[in-house]
Design goal:
With 595 residues, the chain is mostly helical. The chain is built from 28 helices and five strands.
Length: 595
């Protein structure tokens, strides 16, 4: 016996035979405990979706199938309808564009063999029943349809109570209020969150009157602002930022004025992405929202400048040093004009510009700017202010690059002691200073001290940030240098080779950190005395990439060139080495940027 589309478990016991045989029940309601053994039929996996689309639409490319499956949330019924529409002559690109703007209308189209109604009609039927029988649940369903498609924490609903036309007591037990959504197959609910499928959301949004839609968007904006976690720089706040970012970091919508009320939250989200190592996501978000804000408010608006500063930081993080410098300089000039030299935002921009100069190898200019920032920060904020300590840290690593490691060590030891006292051993700023102190120890030819400190920072960053975080990988390179300086070349080689593999995978072949790690590995291979050919191959590749991405005069490029010349000399290729070395060229010290 097959009982199809059975939604109410309480109505079925009299229909269930007690004798031999089998009963198959299909239902959108998962609450069948005690009556039947449930077998959940979830959305397709992405692999299943792509396979299904390509088997029914042979001309569709993998990239098209993947994008369409993503738009449809891998929902089998929606995929079936899409196949019917595309097979009738509509292109995948056209279907995706229409899906974005006319979801409900499009999901009424397409044949669904063996299924009584298209997806939009199925959602409409369930929604009407929900509105009639459970008005409070219907309000939550409407609200949930204006969040992103990721899980919505139940704790957020407490912020929405005042904005919904319902009694506060109706939401004291949010699971009970959400249970009807589960019963009608409109949402998933667990102990911590609820989730509505992206297509169900889109269909419902299309059905809501404009005035009601505006009120719901405003309510969601209020909830997101109220749910903002702590400092995005701190790993302990990242789980909260991860939940929030899933609902706010999508493509900007120029017609949605509510998003302009979320500026601080959006900036925090971009900063979280940066600090947690999701650099390209942070870059995309900062670039797109900067363009949106500039178009809406103008280039000099404080919020636009905040986005420009975020964009500059993201550019530097992905290795776009020249663009980061251009943006940082523009932001500083505008903030000086609008806010004055001593405003905290202006001082922050001076810091950002100095950091961009360090990345470009303009160490003397960066030093002067850091010293100016330090003077202002001490006067306005105090000796132990985080900005003051961060600036001292940055100034110190610039001194290492200027071959003044002893002065750098004195500064870093003082800053590290204060940060450990004020911020704690594991704070990101403390670990950044400790990392830079390890670099200073290496520059002072104190590899034992460098190794101890770098190893400690590496272990802490692995614990708090993970093995593949850019900051973790940066200090791993520093540790490898110290291990090599101690003469333990085999261990240094293993550490650097593993680190280089991770850097290539996470940051890419052309990122300066990757190029530096390749250079370090080549130097270690040369120390081993039997890897000159592999070292030359690494350095030739790194030199070509560094010239293209950083320029011929950048310190990293010159360091790679010098090491390649030394490698050629060791291989007996003296003429090739001479051709590389321009008259009067000098080895630039390789710096480790603050992370």
């Amino acid at each position: 016996i097959v009982l199809d589309n059975a939604d109410d478990p309480s109505a079925l016991p009299t229909w269930l035979p007690e004798g031999p045989g089998h009963v198959l029940i299909t239902s959108r309601n998962p609450s069948w405990r005690g009556l039947a053994r449930s077998v959940a039929l979830d959305s397709f996996t992405r692999t299943d979706s792509i396979r299904y689309l390509k088997s029914h639409l042979p001309g569709v490319r993998n990239t098209e199938a993947n994008a369409l499956a993503d738009d449809l949330g891998d929902l089998p019924l929606a995929l079936t309808q899409a196949v019917g529409v595309v097979a009738s002559g509509m292109t995948v690109d056209t279907y995706r564009a229409r899906l974005l703007h006319n979801t409900a209308e499009l999901l009424q189209l397409g044949e669904t063999p063996g299924y009584p109604a298209p997806l939009a009609a199925t959602v409409d039927i369930a929604t009407k029943l929900l509105a009639r029988q459970y008005p409070v649940s219907f309000q939550l369903f409407q609200l949930g349809s204006f969040f992103g498609p990721d899980p919505v924490p139940l704790a957020w609903l407490s912020y929405a109570v005042a904005l919904l036309p319902t009694d506060r007591d109706d939401l004291t037990q949010p699971n009970a209020a959400l249970d009807p959504l589960v019963r009608y197959g409109l949402a998933r609910v667990d102990q911590e969150s609820f989730q509505i499928h992206r297509l169900t959301q889109a269909i419902q949004r299309d059905r809501v009157e404009p005035s009601r839609a505006a009120a719901l968007r405003h309510a969601v904006t209020y909830v997101l602002r109220s749910a903002t976690p702590g400092d995005p720089d701190l790993p302990e706040s990242w789980p909260g930022w991860e939940q929030l970012t899933a609902h706010i970091s999508g493509r900007p919508r120029p017609d949605d004025t509510d998003q302009f009320l979320l500026c601080a939250v959006l900036l925090g989200s971009a900063r979280y992405l940066m600090r947690s190592g999701r650099l390209h996501e942070a870059h995309r978000m900062s670039m797109e929202f900067h363009d949106l804000w500039a178009g809406h408010f103008g280039a000099d608006h404080p919020d636009t400048l905040a986005w420009a500063a975020s964009r500059a930081e993201a550019e530097a993080a992905i290795g776009g040093y020249a663009e980061a410098h251009r943006l940082a300089l523009d932001v500083l000039e505008r903030r000086r004009h609008v806010l004055g030299d001593d405003h905290p935002d202006t001082v922050a921009s001076m810091n950002s510009l100095a950091e961009a100069l360090v990345y470009l190898g303009a160490y003397d200019e960066a030093r002067r700017l850091y010293e100016d920032v330090l003077q202002r920060s001490r006067r306005v904020l105090g000796e132990d202010a985080p900005v003051t300590l961060t600036t001292l840290n940055s100034l110190a690593i610039t001194l290492v690059a200027l071959n003044e490691p002893e002065d750098a060590r004195r500064l870093l030891e003082d800053v590290l002691a204060r940060q450990r006292r004020v911020l704690g051993e594991d704070h990101p700023d403390t670990l950044s200073t400790a990392h830079n102190l390890a670099v200073a120890f290496s520059a002072l030819r104190e590899p034992h001290q460098a190794r101890l400190l770098a190893q400690d920072v590496l272990e802490r960053r692995r614990r708090f940030l993970g093995d593949d975080h850019p900051s973790t990988l940066a200090v791993a390179t520093t540790l490898a240098i110290a291990v090599s300086e101690l003469g333990e070349q085999t261990e240094a080689r293993l550490l650097t080779a593993d680190n280089l593999y991770k850097l290539r995978r996470t940051l890419g072949e052309n990122h300066p950190e990757t190029l530096e790690a390749a250079r370090v590995l080549a130097v270690i291979l040369n120390h081993l005395g039997k890897g000159h050919h592999e070292a030359a191959r690494l350095l030739e590749n790194a030199l070509d990439r560094s010239r293209r991405t950083l320029g011929a005069d950048h310190p990293i490029t010159e360091s790679i060139l010098q090491d390649l010349a030394a490698t050629y000399q060791a291989m007996g290729k003296h003429l090739e080495a001479q051709r590389l070395l321009a008259p009067g060229s000098e080895r630039n010290s390789s710096r480790r940027p603050r992370r």
